[in-house]
Design brief:
Layout: H1 14-26, H2 34-47, E1 51-55, H3 58-68, E2 76-80, H4 86-93, E3 97-101, H5 112-118, E4 123-129, H6 138-148, E5 151-155, E6 163-164, E7 167-168, E8 175-179, E9 192-196, H7 199-209, H8 232-243, H9 245-264, E10 270-271, E11 278-279, E12 285-288, H10 293-305, E13 311-312, H11 324-330, H12 335-343, E14 344-347, H13 355-370
Parallel strand pairs: 2-3, 2-4, 4-5, 5-8
Antiparallel strand pairs: 1-9, 6-7, 6-11, 8-9, 10-12, 12-14, 13-14
Length: about 375
């Protein structure tokens, strides 16, 4: 039996360990410390934004952004159905209703025309997800948002360092959110960040992040806030990851290139499309099996037999139990979402994969596809 190649694993080294040791020996292990300050600076630079606010995970980043934008009960927020459920859950936490839109076949991001058709008097915001590292068509979505006076939020959890028309993910909407979960390109185990160029919005998010305590009057709380702060220990790991980001991205791009060459020679597989205006963030290498879910699932099972772990695409959120009632009331057909979900899966992608492990994946893929 071949050794198992995981679909994702963090790339951790001496710098991460050294930073954690510094954080621990300094005694600053909670929500203050040098690495939190350093992370803000590094992440502002990495996203080309004026404000970067570390938080405890990517889901709370979304919730914090929506609350700071004033989203609440009675409001609607348009989201893609083809994404991780946290995108819709964050809307639900505010008391607002997620309205599910289809994605395009060309970039797998929100379909601007469908989004526009869903705008109602209750709509307050659009959340664009950069799915599997490819940016959504942000200029087109910005045009829709501006026509209707809506906030535009980026869920960039899967796309740090991606670009759209030369502009970095995280700087394309009114506010953007990131995840530093263990399977992400930049990881701190758990953690995340919110970015924005709006100083007033940044101040509001900082206030809400720390239980609502007035920054100028200790233990005075003018609002009900949340404990969404990141720890200095987690920030220590994230800072090391950002310092090593170029080498990790180069390693991931080399893996993508090797997969691209292999897939080009195999029938029945379709690689992720890439628009000329986009630079993809190489998170998990996605593939489509146009023959449908049955063949996709057969390939997943066969690859597992060769020691290769994979991951199917997300189940559309509008088909999941918590959102069936809203889906029945607000949903039109989402044909691209349903097709991609049934056809898609991800190959192992981590900067810590060895050449032999990547070779094992390539050989296994060829064997299961050509073996019929």
């Amino acid at each position: 039996m071949a050794a198992r190649v995981p679909v994702s694993r963090p790339d951790l080294g001496d710098l991460e360990l050294s930073n954690v040791e510094r954080a621990v020996t300094s005694s600053w292990i909670s929500s203050s410390g040098e690495f939190l300050e350093q992370l803000e600076e590094r992440f502002r630079a990495a996203t080309g934004t004026e404000h970067a606010i570390p938080v405890s995970n990517g889901t709370v980043a979304l919730h914090l952004a929506l609350v700071a934008l004033g989203i609440g009960p009675g409001d609607e927020v348009i989201v893609p159905s083809l994404t991780y459920i946290a995108t819709a859950n964050a809307v639900h936490y505010t008391g607002a209703t997620p309205v599910f839109a289809d994605v395009t076949a060309s970039d797998w991001g929100l379909d601007p025309a469908h989004v526009e058709s869903l705008v109602s008097p209750r709509t307050r915001a659009i959340i664009a997800v950069h799915l599997y590292g490819h940016p959504a068509d942000m200029p087109a979505l910005r045009a829709v948002a501006d026509r209707h006076g809506l906030a535009l939020v980026e869920d960039a959890a899967e796309a740090p360092f991606a670009t759209c028309h030369g502009q970095l993910a995280g700087s394309l909407g009114d506010v953007a959110t990131f995840s530093f979960y263990g399977n992400k390109i930049v990881s701190s185990g758990e953690g995340g960040a919110v970015t924005t160029n709006d100083a007033a919005l940044a101040a509001r998010m900082r206030l809400l992040r720390g239980q609502g305590m007035d920054p100028n009057r200790r233990y005075y709380f003018p609002v009900v806030g949340f404990n969404y702060r990141m720890t200095n220990v987690a920030a220590a790991i994230a800072c090391a990851q950002l310092a090593r980001a170029d080498e990790m991205l180069d390693a991931r791009r080399a893996i993508y290139a090797r997969y691209d060459r292999a897939v080009a020679e195999l029938p029945g597989l379709v690689a992720q499309p890439q628009q000329p205006w986009a630079t993809i963030s190489p998170w998990l290498y996605p593939l489509l099996v146009p023959a449908g879910a049955g063949e996709r699932d057969r390939l997943i099972d066969a690859l597992a037999g060769h020691g290769v772990e994979t991951r199917p695409f997300f189940i559309p959120i509008h088909r999941l139990p918590p959102y069936l009632d809203d889906s029945g009331r607000l949903l039109a057909d989402l044909p691209v979402t349903d097709r991609l979900s049934s056809e898609g899966f991800n190959l192992p992608t981590s900067s810590s994969l060895t050449p032999d492990e990547v070779g094992q994946v390539v050989a296994a893929l060829a064997a299961v596809v050509q073996g019929g």
